[in-house]
Design a protein that fits this description.
InterPro entries: Carb_Metab_HTH_regulators, DeoR-like_C, DeoR_HTH, NagB/RpiA_transferase-like, Tscrpt_reg_HTH_DeoR_CS, WH-like_DNA-bd_sf, WH_DNA-bd_sf. The strands form four sheets. The protein has a seven-stranded parallel sheet with strand order 6-5-4-9-12-14-15, with helices on both faces. It contains ten helices and 15 strands. It has two domains: about 5-60, Orthogonal Bundle (Arc Repressor Mutant, subunit A); about 75-259, Rossmann fold. It has about 260 residues and is an alpha/beta fold. α2 (about 25-30) crosses α3 (about 35-45), α5 (about 80-95) packs across α6 and α8 (about 160-170) runs parallel beside α9 (about 195-205). It is about 40% helix and about 25% strand. A hairpin with a 4-residue loop joins β7 and β8.
C-alpha cells in the first residue's frame, strides 16, 4: 500500500473520529481526490471494521468488536428523555380530531401518544405494535385495526406482508411515525430493515404525515432510510431543538412544534 494511501486513510479516520457521518462527496472535496478513490478507501475501512457505509455516508465504528448499534429495547428506551417524550406524545394526541383514522407507529416516543389519547374522542387506530394495541384496547371510544403478524419482542412491533398490504389499503387521516435518527444527508432513518416496510406503508396511506422525535434524534444516522424529511407535514419535538435544525425544517415548509 502506498504512503499516500496510508496517509489518506489516516486522515479519513481522524475526520470520522471528530465528526461521524461524512459523505463520499465531502471526503472527495476535503482530500482533493476522486469519489472513486474515496469509495475504495472506505470499502477497505469497512472491511477492517473501522466504519459502516450507509448510502454513501461513512459512520465511525469504535472497534471491530464493538457493535455499531446497541440492542434496542422498547421498555428501556421509554425511560430515556421520558419528560420530553411525554410532552411530545401529549401534543400529538391533541392533534387527533373526532372520527379520525390514525396510525400509531412502533417506538418509544409514539408509546407516549397511545398513553395520552383522549377518551372523549371517537377514533379508529391502526396499531403496529403490541404496546400500542394494549393501550388503545382500554379506550372505550376507539375502533382498532391491528396489522398483526410476527411480534419482534425488543420493539413490540408486528410484521408480516399481509399486514403491510392491509395498511396500504387503509385510508388514514393522520400517521404518527417514529424514527431512530434524522439527518440532512440521509433524511429519516430507522435501525432494522424490517421496520422500513411498515413505516413506508404508513407514509403511503396517510393524508397527513407526522414525525415524532425528541431532539437527541436530530443529526443521528442509522442503517435504513425510509423517508425524506420533506415528506412529512408536521414534526413534533422538544424545546431543545437547535436553531439550525429549526431553520432547516421551516425552510422545508414543515409545520414544527417544539414542546
Amino acid at each position: 500500500m502506498s504512503r499516500s494511501k496510508l496517509n489518506r486513510l489516516d486522515k479519513i479516520k481522524k475526520m470520522l473520529i471528530a465528526q461521524t457521518g461524512i459523505s463520499i462527496k465531502e471526503f472527495s472535496a476535503s482530500l482533493n481526490v476522486s469519489e472513486i478513490t474515496i469509495r475504495r478507501d472506505l470499502n477497505l475501512l469497512e472491511e477492517q471494521g473501522f466504519i459502516r457505509l450507509v448510502n454513501g455516508v461513512a459512520i465511525y465504528r469504535m472497534n471491530e468488536n464493538t457493535p455499531l448499534y446497541p440492542e434496542y429495547n422498547l421498555s428501556s428506551e421509554c425511560t430515556v428523555f421520558q419528560d420530553k417524550k411525554e410532552r411530545i406524545g401529549k401534543k400529538a394526541a391533541s392533534l387527533i380530531e373526532l372520527n379520525d383514522v390514525v396510525a400509531i407507529d412502533s417506538g418509544s416516543t409514539t408509546a407516549y401518544l397511545s398513553q395520552n389519547l383522549s377518551y372523549d374522542t371517537h377514533m379508529t387506530v391502526v396499531a403496529s405494535s403490541m404496546n400500542v394495541l394494549i393501550d388503545v384496547s382500554k379506550h372505550h371510544n376507539c375502533d382498532i385495526i391491528c396489522s398483526g403478524g410476527y411480534l419482534y419482542p425488543n420493539t413490540q412491533m408486528f410484521y408480516c406482508p399481509e399486514g403491510i398490504s392491509m395498511i396500504k389499503r387503509t385510508c388514514i387521516n393522520k400517521a404518527f411515525i417514529s424514527t431512530a435518527g434524522i439527518s440532512e444527508k440521509l433524511n429519516v432513518t430507522c435501525i432494522a430493515p424490517h421496520e422500513m416496510d411498515g413505516k413506508r406503508a404508513l407514509m403511503e396511506s396517510a393524508q397527513t404525515k407526522i414525525l415524532l422525535a425528541d431532539s437527541s434524534k436530530f443529526g443521528k444516522i442509522f442503517p435504513t432510510a425510509f423517508s425524506r424529511i420533506q415528506d412529512f407535514d408536521i414534526i413534533i419535538t422538544d424545546n431543545e431543538l437547535s436553531e439550525e435544525w429549526r431553520t432547516y425544517i421551516e425552510n422545508a415548509n414543515i409545520t414544527l412544534y417544539c414542546e
